[in-house]
Amino acid sequence: MNYNSKHLTNSPEGRDIASIIHPLTNLKSHLEKGPVIIDSGEGVWVTDIYGNKYIEGMSGLWCVSLGYGQERLVNAAANQMRKMPYYHLTNHKSHNPIINLAETLLNMAPVPMSKVWFANSGSEGNDSAARIVWYYWSATGKPQKRKIISHRQAYHGNTIASASLSGMYYNHASFGLPLEGFLHTTPPHHYRFAKPEEGEEEFATRLAGELETLIEKEGSDTIGAFFTEPIMGSGGVIVPPPTYYEKIQKILTKHDILLIADEVITGFGRTGNMFGTTTMGLNPDMIVCAKGLSSAYIPISALFVNDKIFEAISNESDRVGVFGLSFTYSGHPVSAAVASEALKIYEEEEIVEHVKRVTPVFQEGLRDLIDHPLVGEVRGVGLLAGVEFVKNKINHEPFSNELGVGAFCNQRAEEHGLIVRAIGDTISFCPPLIIDINEVEEMISRFRLALDDTWKQFKNISEH
Ligand SMILES: Cc1ncc(COP(=O)(O)O)c(C=O)c1O
């Protein structure tokens, strides 16, 4: 790998260090470590400013689903910018790009949906969904149903409400979050949270029981909604056991609690169906999507709401005077044009079919790593996977956090030309959906090299 001196203030790295606050980064160690500066991309590959090439095993931040270099998306943006770069949707205004997009989305929704609300990011989508939950219960005469439940380790975003929905410690610590009324329940991760000898079915039953106990303790007349990622992404790629959602949906229905599916990662083919809602058998009242919607070429998110919700919120807006939720860039025409073009690409290039073809090579290739002495669990669905390292493969004991085993592997992978993401000691994979079989094999063989380097480094600590 080629690197320039990071600390020369006129080097690109030095200028970055001198000027930028980086998200989800240790700000202090960044001053020493500096950035890897990515300059260009093509397909599943990205290239840094020194010409080093990497397989983008994470589609950036789980988002560049159609890969780099999609000229159709570039042209869609340029054409729309030329024709009409901006218009808004407030005060009864509209424009064709957003009408076309909303219609297409409603036609492809995995369960019947009534209308679409647009925003700029997954966080804003979830934040809007939380606001709509409150508005809905005010509209239906139960304004005390304000509490919202989600999973610990969930990631729903980073506005104040969506960070409160998130269940990651680093979104809360030192920020004074979560806000009151945001409750968290055990993540449906059998490998990590099952009791000894507890099968998947019993585990799902126990978690559903825990949820019901929480609802009853708080009072079901105070609980408005349950948010879930069909498959949890940033919390470590957690695939709930088969009957988990069936069990918890019964409880939610019994206690009159809305269900919101956060499909920000799982939407648009990632799990081998167009939506994770279908893959996991969900029946949500609202669905949030973003990322793959425009393949991240431009910021946009969409929130589907069903008839029941729309009817209530439209009546309430009539009572209040206007629907008081608004962003300047809601339904931005350039974002809408790019998203519509992306949806055409998903359809015309049969991306879901492609994902189904590539999935076995990806999932089985990674599952073969279970024999490696570091690997405790390999999990995933479609083109989404996590490989978790453990100190002890028998009792699943993790390495201590301070060792930074996952971070070490992440770094070694980069040195072998592969970008992955360490979530603690789980290495996550979420490659562009257009990845071909050779590229999947290349990605896994580069990962194997990083895994072996990591083993060499930590084998003395492992209790293998
Ligand atoms: C499941 C999920 N929801 C919401 C978000 C937040 O989306 P954004 O970063 O676009 O605000 C993310 C981002 O990673 C996510 O993975």
Give a brief description:
By secondary structure, the chain is an alpha/beta fold. The chain folds into two domains: 36-69 and 351-458, Aspartate Aminotransferase, domain 1 (Alpha-Beta Complex); 72-348, Type I PLP-dependent aspartate aminotransferase-like (Major domain) (Aspartate Aminotransferase, domain 2, 3-Layer(aba) Sandwich).
What is the CATH homology-level superfamily of the largest domain? Type I PLP-dependent aspartate aminotransferase-like (Major domain)
User: Which class do the helix and strand fractions yield?
Assistant: alpha/beta
Radius of gyration: 22 Å
Distance between the termini: 32 Å
Shape: globular
- The proportion of residues forming helix, as a percent range, comes to 40-55%
Number of domains: 2
CATH topology grouping of the largest domain: Aspartate Aminotransferase, domain 2
- CATH class placement of the largest domain: Alpha Beta
Which blocks of ≥5 consecutive residues have pLDDT under 50? Answer: none
Largest sheet report = 7 strands, mixed
Bound compounds? pyridoxal-5'-phosphate
Protein model, in words:
41% of the residues lie in helices and 15% in strands. The protein is built from 17 helices and 15 strands. It has 464 residues and is an alpha/beta fold. The strands form three sheets. It has a seven-stranded mixed beta sheet, with helices on both faces. It binds pyridoxal-5'-phosphate. The site of pyridoxal-5'-phosphate has 16 residues, from helix 3 and helix 6. Pyridoxal-5'-phosphate (PLP) binds next to helix 3 and helix 6.
